[in-house]
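Researcher: Next sequence.
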Amino acid sequence: MPLSDKKRCKWINEDPLYIRYHDEEWGVPVSDDRMWFEFITLDAFQAGLSWYTIIKKRENFRRAFDNFEPEVIARYEETKIATLIEDKSIIRNHLKIKATVVNAKAFLKIKEEFGSFNTFIWQFTENKTLINQWANTNEVPAHTEISDLMSKALIKRGFKFVGSTICYAFMQAAGIVNDHTIDCYRHKECCEIAKK
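Model: Next structure:
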Protein backbone atom coordinates (compact mmCIF):
# COMPACT_ATOMS: atom_id res chain seq x y z
CA MET A 1 0.00 0.00 0.00
CA PRO A 2 1.49 3.41 -0.96
CA LEU A 3 2.26 5.77 1.92
CA SER A 4 -0.38 8.22 0.73
CA ASP A 5 -3.12 5.54 0.91
CA LYS A 6 -2.75 5.06 4.65
CA LYS A 7 -4.81 7.16 7.02
CA ARG A 8 -2.59 8.86 9.59
CA CYS A 9 -2.84 11.33 12.46
CA LYS A 10 -3.41 14.84 11.10
CA TRP A 11 -0.25 16.29 12.68
CA ILE A 12 1.96 14.42 10.23
CA ASN A 13 3.33 16.23 7.18
CA GLU A 14 4.67 14.74 3.93
CA ASP A 15 8.31 14.48 4.99
CA PRO A 16 9.30 10.77 4.76
CA LEU A 17 11.40 11.19 7.93
CA TYR A 18 8.38 12.40 9.88
CA ILE A 19 6.12 9.75 8.37
CA ARG A 20 8.60 7.03 9.35
CA TYR A 21 8.74 8.40 12.91
CA HIS A 22 4.93 8.33 13.13
CA ASP A 23 4.64 4.88 11.54
CA GLU A 24 7.44 3.15 13.43
CA GLU A 25 8.02 4.89 16.76
CA TRP A 26 5.35 7.27 18.03
CA GLY A 27 3.13 5.46 20.52
CA VAL A 28 5.23 2.29 20.64
CA PRO A 29 6.01 1.34 24.27
CA VAL A 30 9.63 1.90 25.24
CA SER A 31 11.51 -0.34 27.68
CA ASP A 32 15.15 0.59 26.98
CA ASP A 33 16.68 3.08 29.41
CA ARG A 34 18.90 4.75 26.81
CA MET A 35 15.83 5.37 24.64
CA TRP A 36 13.97 6.76 27.63
CA PHE A 37 16.74 9.28 28.16
CA GLU A 38 16.75 10.19 24.47
CA PHE A 39 13.01 10.91 24.53
CA ILE A 40 13.08 12.87 27.77
CA THR A 41 15.96 14.97 26.41
CA LEU A 42 14.39 15.60 23.01
CA ASP A 43 11.05 16.51 24.59
CA ALA A 44 12.83 19.04 26.81
CA PHE A 45 14.46 20.61 23.75
CA GLN A 46 11.08 20.68 22.01
CA ALA A 47 9.63 23.14 24.56
CA GLY A 48 8.52 26.18 22.56
CA LEU A 49 9.27 24.45 19.24
CA SER A 50 7.60 21.90 16.97
CA TRP A 51 8.35 18.19 17.27
CA TYR A 52 9.10 18.20 13.53
CA THR A 53 11.98 20.63 14.16
CA ILE A 54 13.42 18.20 16.72
CA ILE A 55 12.99 15.12 14.53
CA LYS A 56 14.85 16.82 11.67
CA LYS A 57 17.79 17.45 14.04
CA ARG A 58 17.59 14.13 15.88
CA GLU A 59 20.68 12.56 14.33
CA ASN A 60 22.63 15.75 15.07
CA PHE A 61 21.50 15.54 18.69
CA ARG A 62 22.57 11.89 18.88
CA ARG A 63 26.02 12.79 17.59
CA ALA A 64 26.40 15.86 19.79
CA PHE A 65 25.14 14.16 22.97
CA ASP A 66 27.06 10.87 22.72
CA ASN A 67 24.02 8.89 21.57
CA PHE A 68 22.14 10.02 24.71
CA GLU A 69 24.17 7.81 27.02
CA PRO A 70 23.33 9.29 30.45
CA GLU A 71 26.48 7.86 32.04
CA VAL A 72 28.59 9.90 29.58
CA ILE A 73 26.46 13.05 29.67
CA ALA A 74 26.44 13.15 33.48
CA ARG A 75 30.23 13.70 33.31
CA TYR A 76 30.11 16.62 30.86
CA GLU A 77 32.27 19.54 31.96
CA GLU A 78 32.01 23.22 31.04
CA THR A 79 34.24 22.82 27.98
CA LYS A 80 31.87 20.22 26.50
CA ILE A 81 28.84 22.39 27.33
CA ALA A 82 30.53 25.36 25.61
CA THR A 83 31.12 23.20 22.52
CA LEU A 84 27.44 22.21 22.44
CA ILE A 85 26.33 25.83 22.74
CA GLU A 86 28.38 26.58 19.60
CA ASP A 87 27.00 23.58 17.66
CA LYS A 88 24.69 25.03 14.99
CA SER A 89 23.36 21.59 14.06
CA ILE A 90 21.33 21.31 17.30
CA ILE A 91 19.13 23.65 19.35
CA ARG A 92 21.68 25.92 21.02
CA ASN A 93 19.71 26.75 24.14
CA HIS A 94 22.13 27.20 27.03
CA LEU A 95 19.55 26.37 29.72
CA LYS A 96 18.35 23.21 27.95
CA ILE A 97 21.90 22.00 27.32
CA LYS A 98 22.83 22.49 30.99
CA ALA A 99 19.54 20.85 32.02
CA THR A 100 20.46 17.77 29.97
CA VAL A 101 23.55 17.26 32.15
CA VAL A 102 21.51 17.79 35.33
CA ASN A 103 18.86 15.38 34.03
CA ALA A 104 21.46 12.72 33.22
CA LYS A 105 22.62 12.78 36.86
CA ALA A 106 19.02 12.60 38.14
CA PHE A 107 18.27 9.81 35.65
CA LEU A 108 21.20 7.73 36.96
CA LYS A 109 20.03 8.18 40.55
CA ILE A 110 16.62 6.78 39.58
CA LYS A 111 18.31 3.83 37.84
CA GLU A 112 20.30 3.16 40.98
CA GLU A 113 17.23 3.30 43.19
CA PHE A 114 14.77 1.35 41.01
CA GLY A 115 17.13 -0.86 39.00
CA SER A 116 16.10 0.94 35.82
CA PHE A 117 14.41 4.15 34.76
CA ASN A 118 11.96 1.91 32.88
CA THR A 119 10.71 0.42 36.16
CA PHE A 120 10.28 3.88 37.66
CA ILE A 121 8.44 5.51 34.75
CA TRP A 122 5.94 2.75 34.02
CA GLN A 123 4.63 2.81 37.60
CA PHE A 124 2.61 5.92 36.71
CA THR A 125 0.26 3.80 34.58
CA GLU A 126 0.66 0.54 36.51
CA ASN A 127 2.84 -0.92 33.74
CA LYS A 128 0.31 -0.61 30.96
CA THR A 129 -0.26 1.67 27.98
CA LEU A 130 -3.27 3.95 28.31
CA ILE A 131 -5.41 3.57 25.18
CA ASN A 132 -7.33 6.67 24.13
CA GLN A 133 -10.10 6.85 21.54
CA TRP A 134 -9.74 10.33 20.05
CA ALA A 135 -11.77 11.07 16.91
CA ASN A 136 -9.49 13.97 15.97
CA THR A 137 -6.33 15.68 17.18
CA ASN A 138 -8.28 18.62 18.64
CA GLU A 139 -9.53 16.30 21.39
CA VAL A 140 -6.04 15.31 22.55
CA PRO A 141 -5.13 17.05 25.84
CA ALA A 142 -1.91 18.98 26.41
CA HIS A 143 -1.50 17.32 29.83
CA THR A 144 -3.36 14.98 32.18
CA GLU A 145 -3.49 14.16 35.88
CA ILE A 146 -0.90 11.44 35.28
CA SER A 147 1.47 13.79 33.47
CA ASP A 148 0.97 16.26 36.33
CA LEU A 149 2.04 13.57 38.82
CA MET A 150 4.97 12.49 36.64
CA SER A 151 6.16 16.07 36.30
CA LYS A 152 6.06 16.65 40.06
CA ALA A 153 7.91 13.38 40.72
CA LEU A 154 10.65 14.16 38.20
CA ILE A 155 11.07 17.74 39.44
CA LYS A 156 11.30 16.47 43.02
CA ARG A 157 14.11 14.18 41.89
CA GLY A 158 16.04 17.06 40.33
CA PHE A 159 14.96 17.06 36.68
CA LYS A 160 14.67 20.29 34.69
CA PHE A 161 12.36 21.07 31.74
CA VAL A 162 9.86 18.38 32.74
CA GLY A 163 6.64 20.35 33.07
CA SER A 164 3.37 18.47 32.70
CA THR A 165 2.96 19.32 28.99
CA ILE A 166 6.48 18.09 28.24
CA CYS A 167 5.78 14.94 30.27
CA TYR A 168 2.61 14.27 28.31
CA ALA A 169 4.46 14.63 25.00
CA PHE A 170 7.04 12.23 26.45
CA MET A 171 4.26 9.77 27.39
CA GLN A 172 2.85 9.93 23.85
CA ALA A 173 6.21 9.46 22.14
CA ALA A 174 7.28 6.56 24.36
CA GLY A 175 4.00 4.62 24.24
CA ILE A 176 2.87 5.19 27.82
CA VAL A 177 -0.25 6.50 26.13
CA ASN A 178 -1.64 5.67 22.68
CA ASP A 179 -2.86 8.97 21.26
CA HIS A 180 -3.11 7.98 17.63
CA THR A 181 -6.56 9.06 16.51
CA ILE A 182 -8.96 6.18 15.90
CA ASP A 183 -9.01 6.82 12.14
CA CYS A 184 -5.20 6.41 12.01
CA TYR A 185 -4.06 2.96 10.93
CA ARG A 186 -1.43 2.97 13.71
CA HIS A 187 -4.01 3.21 16.51
CA LYS A 188 -4.97 -0.44 16.20
CA GLU A 189 -1.37 -1.57 15.57
CA CYS A 190 -0.11 0.21 18.69
CA CYS A 191 -2.95 -1.34 20.71
CA GLU A 192 -1.73 -4.78 19.58
CA ILE A 193 1.91 -3.93 20.36
CA ALA A 194 0.91 -2.72 23.86
CA LYS A 195 -0.68 -6.12 24.63
CA LYS A 196 2.61 -7.98 24.13
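Model: The CA atoms of residues 28 and 193 lie 7 Å apart. The first strand starts at residue 130 and ends at 131.
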